[in-house]
Amino acid sequence: xxxxxxxxxxxxxxxxxxxxxxxxxxxxxxxxxxxxxxxxxxxxxxxxxxxxxxxxxxxxxxxxxxxxxxxxxxxxxxxxxxxxxxxxxxxxxxxxxxxxxxxxxxxxxxxxxxxxxxxxxxxxxxxxxxxxxxxxxxxxxxxxxxxxxxxxxxxxxxxxxxxxxxxxxxxxxxxxxxxx
Length: 180
Description:
single chain, 5-stranded parallel sheet, about 50% helix, alpha/beta
């Protein structure tokens, strides 16, 4: 957990700022992303699959306009450590396909990642549309650097502003699921 929250998350911010300020070239940002993707995928593969009941089934992806998937991979690593069954579709999945995949794989949670480059109206519209397509029992968790996620909470959408709070959110989900 500390690797993701205390090293990777701040490093991502620093790399993003360096790119925006012109101190990193696009190829350098891509190289960083590929190296970190390899490390995270290897770490996720080494985590034992959850056994028994109480393991939420989490579908991870981004909306079609969101090409960045590193945050999604960080979330997958933390959720796997929490004993979640994770199914990643990678970035840029059409909303109807997200809804279909959630249904086919009986997802308890759909987790979406958004960067700051996403415009507020597009993010809100996508989340509202997806909420309408999913059954009420399927939770939508959102996170990332997009400010609108935290400024205008939407009904049926849980904003997870700090990646380090994911273990607590999984525990809350388990408590609520056990009460049903």
